[in-house]
Amino acid sequence: MQTLWQDLHFGARMLLKKPGFTIVTVIILALGIGANTAVFSLINAVLLQPLPFYEPERLVMVWEEASFAGFPRQEPAPANYVDWKAQQSVFEDMAALHWATFRLTGDGEPQQIFANSVTANLFPLLGVAPALGRTFSPEEEKSGAHKVVVLSHKFWQMRYGGERDIIGREILLDDEKYSVIGVMPAEFQLMSSYISLYVPMAHGQEMWADRGSHDLNVVARLKRGVGLRQAQAEIQTITQRISRQYPRETFDGRMGSVTLPLHEQLAGESRRQLLVLLAAVGLVLLIACANIAGLLLARAAGRRKEMAIRAALGAGRGRIARQLLTESLLLAYAGGVAGLLLASWSFAFLEKFIPEGMALSTSLMIDRRVLGYTLLLALLTGAIFGLAPALRASKVDLNDVLKEGGQTNSVAGGGRLRGAMVVFQIAMAMALLVGAGLLIQTLHKLRSQYSFLQPEKILTMRTRLPRDKYKEAGRRKNFYDQTLARVKTLPGVISAGYTTTFPLQWKGGASAFRPEGGQLIPGSSYDALYRQVTADYLQTMSIPLRQGRYFNEVDNERSMPVAIINETMARQYWPGENALNKRFKIGGVTSYKPWVTIVGIVADVKEIGLDVPAKATMFFPYQQMADSFWNTPRELATRVQGDAANVVAAVRQAIWAVDRDQPVSNIRMMNEILAEELAERRVEMSLLAAFAGLGLLMAALGIYGVLSYVVTQRTPELGIRLALGAQPHDVLRLVLRQGMRLAVAGIGLGVLAALLLTRLIKSLLVDVSVTDPLTFAGVALLLALVALLACFIPARRATKVDPLIALRSE
């Protein structure tokens, strides 16, 4: 311990004697270790920490599955959920919920509220108790029971100021009185973070017998001792039995099921993205280690006489190496402490990576696991960048070093090792830059696929009509007609239309249907996305017409039932023939709905995800679907010219002129919806690009440092060359050639490293090849130019060597 203390004391003294070197090294390490700590903190919070439920490892979600039809995880139909629950033996219990909206009035400005309709057993199944009051009883989910509601903690605080006497108060939802019976904890969340209310799922028998509507989320708790594989096998068996019994409603009898751990479901695609980021920051740290190893090798060359004297006084090679390694570890731990500070400062930015399904229940912090990771990382980092220089410096030849001219061989040997470090840095920077370049291309292609809509000119807002107030189809028609008539006459408005939902806003909304005559081709789905629209909606959105016609005012409740479908639906269900004028009906074999004639085919628009293939989609005139309140239009699209901000207030006033109590919400441009969908990818791309830029900077500094050291060591040689007649451009070319050889070797090795890294991010790319030649060539050219600039500065300095001064020093 006494020797260790001597090593630490002396190492600290030596580092303080070179404050410039120490500060630069600690900054480089802080960037590398801090980036790794920050990303690991995110992984720890999202993937390693348990969910805030009772025994969360036993919680699962159950989905319908029809991957062959483009629905790998489809929301279960109510009747299928009922059969699962009745026939299974692997779960302690199963519960269901689905998304809903309400219009809140009576105590302030009208407000559109997002809610979850849940079965009464959901909260007990999760093991979550309310912060105030109670949750639902089984009697309250029966149709016709007294209406009750549980508030989310955030909504309670924002709307009611956290008043504790809220329990028992009545609020008006869709003009009906609901009694507040509870408030959930602040960290409670299941699926969406924007949910404000929870109400009982009080459906009648008809709803629970429905197999055509897919709108439930199903959560279950495994029995003790039952594994996920056993549960999946049993639910799959039940689902196959349902499929055989109801083939028309289950993809020609081919529907299956998927059982997933709840944690995996909520984390979503973040696992893959976080592992990519961890790999990226790992490369940044390796670049930093190589950079610092080069600095230490250069510094060790200046301490060779000191090491020789130590050896002459009796210090063994291991003792010298230990002293130098101790200094490296001191640097590493100083960098680790600074890295912890950088990581904590980055949490506000990194919170954007927390999946939506875990936004309220997850927070980033420096806990024991993160602290231990950082300390271990600092130890490994110090060993990685300090071991080679320490071993190199401890290998001294007393006779060679103590003689006046005995540096040449050693310098050459050390130079080869420093050159290898530079090659490694360039290779890693190449891999990072290629990965960032491919993600940038993906981001551009995802956004450009909606360019034909001109999303920057489409103003969107939501006006969901309350069921009781607009139960009659005539009242709904009057609202739509009057609102659109007023909006279309506003200055700056080109056209306007209503729809059930906009692209990218709702990830569901499918409905079963049956084409007229014959069977579907094997493997085809009986489902398509269902949208009710007003006559001018498709034109307002600029969705191109491929065949037939758009809707018009004649397509009403008194005319022939018609529909417009997209190209995917035409290809999928009428392959090899013209789908125009074909007929189908909504629902299964026993459907009472009338036959609908296809009068138009429009271009595909990806409705449920940027990187999800376009789904079969069918559009209907809302007046011809007025017999059901389900899926009625609620989203208003307005195509504007000029500044949309000047139109927003006028459109709201036009809506309130028709119905003063109608809430208007979700006011934004279509390109904002697109930006929100791209937000996670943009943050991911920005981080990877930042890491790549940091790696490029370190690689450039590595080349600069090596060549600067080489020029300093070769000053006598360069002076002799100039004295014997060499021109400055000859010396410039000599130094540049030496530096660019390192750069070319690094780029070549980097191509191989990039090919390995891109396999890791392959699943994140859309319509971009992992071997995209343009990206590889562009990155290689960028690296070459940066390397040339880094080489030019010391090479230029070499041409300024004064032969007389160089020879005098020799």
Low-pLDDT parts are 404-413
Determine the mean pLDDT.
83
Distance between the termini: 45 Å
Q: Mind describing the biggest β-sheet? A: 6 strands, mixed, barrel
Count the beta strands.
22
Strand content: 15-25%
Count of DSSP H/I helices: 24
What's the helical proportion of residues? 40-55%
Rg value? 34 Å
Strand order of the largest sheet: 3-4-9-6-8-7
The structure class reads alpha+beta
C-alpha geometry: elongated
Written account of the structure:
The structure is a single chain. The protein has about 800 residues and is α+β, with helices and mostly antiparallel strands. It contains 24 helices and 22 strands. The strands form 3 sheets. Strands 3-4-9-6-8-7 form a 6-stranded mixed barrel. It has a 6-stranded mixed β-barrel with strand order 14-15-20-17-19-18. β3 and β4 form a beta hairpin. α2 runs antiparallel to α9, α15 crosses α22 and α22 runs antiparallel to α23.
Short structural summary:
The chain is of the alpha+beta class and 810 residues long. It is 50% helix and 16% strand.
Give the arrangement of secondary structure elements.
Blueprint: H1 2-17, H2 19-48, E1 59-66, E2 71-74, H3 78-87, E3 91-105, E4 111-118, H4 122-126, E5 132-133, E6 148-151, H5 153-160, E7 170-173, E8 176-183, E9 197-200, H6 205-208, E10 217-222, H7 228-245, E11 256-261, H8 262-267, H9 270-302, H10 304-312, H11 317-345, H12 347-350, H13 368-394, H14 398-402, H15 408-448, E12 458-462, H16 473-488, E13 493-499, E14 510-515, E15 527-533, H17 537-540, E16 545-548, E17 562-566, H18 567-573, E18 583-586, E19 596-602, E20 617-621, E21 635-640, H19 645-658, E22 665-669, H20 670-713, H21 715-723, H22 728-760, H23 773-798, H24 803-809
Parallel strand pairs: 4-9, 6-8, 15-20, 17-19
Antiparallel strand pairs: 1-2, 1-10, 1-11, 3-4, 3-7, 3-10, 5-8, 6-9, 7-8, 12-21, 12-22, 13-21, 14-15, 14-18, 16-19, 17-20, 18-19
